[in-house]
Design goal:
Order of helices and strands: EEEEEHHH
Distance between the termini: 35 Å
Number of helices: 3
Oligomer: single chain
Number of strands: 5
Largest sheet: 3 strands, antiparallel
Shape: globular
Amino acid sequence: MKQKKVPERKCIVTNEMKPKKDLIRVVRNKEGDVFVDPTGKKNGRGAYLSQDRNVIEKAKKTGILNRQLNAEIDLSIFDELMKIVEANEK
């Protein structure tokens, strides 16, 4: 049997390739709205972050999400990302 290929994406902070399901996707749609996409299937420009507190903090400090998505990222997005990371740690 041939094994199914696991889709991988790159974390924009660490530049590590990881399985898509191990990352969190943040999306900017055509209207310019930025939101967290837990399904990984919403339309729009996506950026992936590792599910790690330090990665989220670094993304917040450096403004890398703003650059990747060409949009102003609301602080509530980072709060939502932290909640997802904390939920997955339990």
